[in-house]
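User: Fold this, then the next.

Assistant: Folding the first:
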Amino acid sequence: MKKLILPFLAVTLAAASLVGCSGSPAAGSSAVQSKAAVSASDTSAVSGQVTCSGSSALQPLVQAAADSFQEKNPDVSVMVNAGGSGTGLQNVSDKTVDIGDSDLFAEEKLDSAKASALEDHIVCVVGVAAVVNPKVDVSNVTKQQLLDIFTGKTTNWKELGGKDQKIVIINRPVSSGTRALFKKYALEGKGEAAGVALTEDNSGILKQNVAQTPGAIAYLAFSYLTDSTVKSLSIDGVKPTYDNIYSGRYGVWGYEHMYTYGKATGAAKAFLNYIQGPDCEKVIAEKGYGLSQKMTVKRSAPGAKQ
């Protein structure tokens, strides 16, 4: 009889233990999961398709995260396209993609009704630098000199202490978030001179054009400055680095946003949890982006309460 009772008691105690572990947290314990725990739970057994479009400045990170996420979740397909922040915001507002990638707050590109329908997911920080052809022998400009270049007042590098060489401006299109950040924080909101600049839609191709065009100047997200193909300029003696952005010394930067129409669900939610989670912090740094949590200065959407 004892032989029958002892195994029964063991099974009963084990079952009670399992019930206790799966129930509500004990008094005094936290009911809030860590970001790592949320990420792990939300990316298990995920399936479906996620479509993203928008910022070319953010594209390298989103693509790298998508590749890694799909390895961990083989039943998910993540499609990443560029096109500019304005395009991404319009696409997600129209519900033609699941996620709209943007260098700007939605309120800076869309009307208030459309912007309010979107959910913002800030994933990192991106710096923007003025870049020149490697053979341009100027390494530092003042903010006023930069403004004079892009508004067409200064047209030759010799006016800035360089050699006698025409300045060739290469811009991003008006839909570009990188262009908007550069205009707002480097050019103090002043409009670029019409008819004096070339325009290139893709940041990667723009980088190649600057490298191949004598006297060229443009601007690029730090995520494209991972080699010596082009040369970045200091502004007022401050180098474009994340340490200088974190400390507030270099002001040409913005948050990188991934917007969804309303609350994220399904595979899109799992992907966003992944890219915002600890697994991607190393990738963020390796791909040339900054970590939001290191910022000592903050920025808010237009109209938001400080």
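Now the next one, as you asked:
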Amino acid sequence: MMRPANIVTSVADILAGIAISGVLSIGFPIPWLSIILLAASTACLYGGGIVFNDVFDADLDKIERPERAIPSGIISLRDATLLGGLLLFAGIAFAALNSLTSGLLALLVAVFALLYNKFGKHHSFFGPLNMGLCRGFNLLLGISIVPEMLSNHYLAIIPVIYIFSITMTSRGEVHGGRAKNLYLAAFLYAIVICAIAYFAFVNERLLLSMLFLVPFVVMIFRPLIKAIKEPVGKNIGGAVKAGVISLILMDAAWAVTFDALILAFIIAALLPLSMWLSKLFAVT
């Protein structure tokens, strides 16, 4: 119900944000407690957001996805609501234990997750934007390990654009979609790739970033091209699944761009875990 494979990608976002903050490359001891708190925070926030997704979609899922936990009777609507609330509260609390700034960012993630689940998903533009903002704030949550480094907040626009394109694409995974939406997603993907490559070039890390950008490009475009050729639900679902999981490679590219090569490999090592979990649990 909580999409474990997706939660792994949210932890990767936090690690990328930590890399961007520079806290691992300035010679100070590694702030293990802060890293653990922020990783636990994002895991709870993402899990809670996904639970509320199923809570608000319970009636629709009875028709379109009866195999999900609530319509199949695995968990009651009341218990799912309680679980989602506890997870969101825990996510905010873990972040607040790190700092007030982190707590406020976690609160924003929780609020925008609820807004998306209740209202945003029903809007063709603001829905994808809403979901993108959740990931953008999640990256900032990682950066908030050094609050002063939130001056790099403009970097959050990259995951916003990327998740916007994935969320827009996902609207066709049940009944099929339109090729023009998939072409737009491909264009937005290209913007994201070029933006990361630009920052890597500026920071003189372009060649190293290619270790992660090249497989990232292959992973997201291969299923997307297949979906463009035949925009049926199964192919679109595959493109969405690949887009979500490949966030790990994008985060690894961010890490190496900001001179955290070892952390980049650690983030990349989360990919096989996420892929394995995606075979056991639903991603979308």
